[in-house]
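thought: fold this chain, then report.
action: predict
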Amino acid sequence: MVSVSPSNDPSAALNATFAALADPTRRAILARLAEGDVSVMELAKPFAMSQPAISKHLRVLERAGLISRGRDAQRRPCHIESQPLAEATDWLENYRRLWEANYERLDAVLEELKAVSQPDKPPRSPRKGKSR
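observation:
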């Protein structure tokens, strides 16, 4: 059996990203790291959990490529990595466009139905580029 790491399989990388993001603690850690690099001890402060528990969350994030850990003397600052989040955003963007097109078609059908039920009013044109 061959092990697939997120670094060499785009599908596995995307799976690892979404699996890591599924946990609210890991999302909170990423939100904190978006403000700047911090040590593991600083990351652990707002959470009511042990240092080993925080370390497990960090390992999941690190394996998914969402964070990296450096070495600065005695400190091991954690750093958010943008590439996996960008790839997840790109993947989600395809579905956003799909749903936006569906909503635009639905708007057009609703406008047609309004025009049929109120023949004295001119139909409005469908909204273009409107995000939901």
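thought: worth noting. The chain has five helices and two strands.
final: tokens above.
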